């Protein structure tokens, strides 16, 4: 009897082929999954290395600029409020700037992160991730650069008007940020002008220190 007539033999050979095929498919799927996962992780790592520094530089610059503006405005308004409090203690007439400073300070403290950096602010950055990362030298600033830029601006002691200082703080900000901070900055500048005028009036006596 030939092998072709052996029913059990032909069935055993077919089973061997099916088993080998199943093993091969399982190994292929396993290797495909391993290499696919490794490739995905490698791509994520390369993308992070390419974009993270540029993104950090950009975010650091924008965050520092906004934080510096908020800090300068809050410091100036706090000084005006302190001057008004000392004036009340001396039972002298309080200048209108003292009351106005409280109102402007309330408006300033109501400004939050989402208002200065809404989703639209980051949309362009997210869309840019699909392309090549920008070179680090294309406008990315370091802390040294920012300090040099700020030192180039005249300090308040150099008789810079509050309106000019306000414009300096808003320079370089996005349109959304200027819309949020601009009115508050202008109101604060008016308060500073009023406070300075009240200090310069000789009829009000010496300014408490």
TrEMBL record:
Pfam families referenced in this protein's UniProt entry, alphabetically: Yae1_N
Chief location: cytoplasm
Domain Essential protein Yae1 N-terminal: 39-75
Protein name: Protein YAE1
A GO-annotated cellular component: nucleus
Family: Belongs to the YAE1 family.
Compartments, as annotated in UniProt: Cytoplasm; Nucleus
Record carries keyword Nucleus: yes
Annotated keywords: Cytoplasm, Nucleus
Source domain of life: Eukaryota
Record has Protease as a keyword: no
InterPro entries per record: Essential_protein_Yae1_N (IPR019191), Yae1-like (IPR038881)
């Amino acid at each position: 009897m030939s092998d072709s007539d052996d029913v059990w033999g032909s069935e055993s050979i077919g089973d061997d082929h099916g088993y080998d095929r199943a093993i091969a498919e399982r190994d292929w799927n396993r290797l495909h999954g391993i290499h696919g996962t490794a490739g995905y992780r490698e791509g994520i790592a390369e993308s992070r290395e390419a974009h993270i520094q540029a993104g950090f530089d950009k975010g650091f610059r924008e965050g520092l600029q906004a934080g510096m503006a908020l800090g300068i405005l809050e410091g100036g308004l706090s000084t005006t409020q302190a001057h008004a409090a000392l004036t009340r203690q001396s039972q002298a007439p309080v200048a209108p700037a003292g009351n106005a400073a409280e109102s402007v300070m309330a408006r300033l403290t109501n400004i939050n992160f989402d208002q200065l950096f809404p989703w639209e602010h980051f949309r362009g950055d997210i869309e840019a991730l699909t392309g090549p990362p920008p070179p680090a030298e294309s406008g990315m600033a370091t802390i040294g650069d920012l300090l040099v830029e700020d030192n180039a601006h005249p300090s308040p002691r150099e008789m810079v008007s509050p309106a000019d200082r306000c414009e300096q703080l808003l320079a370089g900000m996005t349109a959304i940020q200027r819309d949020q901070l601009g009115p508050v900055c202008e109101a604060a500048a008016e308060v500073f002008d009023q406070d300075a005028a009240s200090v310069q009036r000789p009829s009000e006596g010496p300014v408490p220190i």
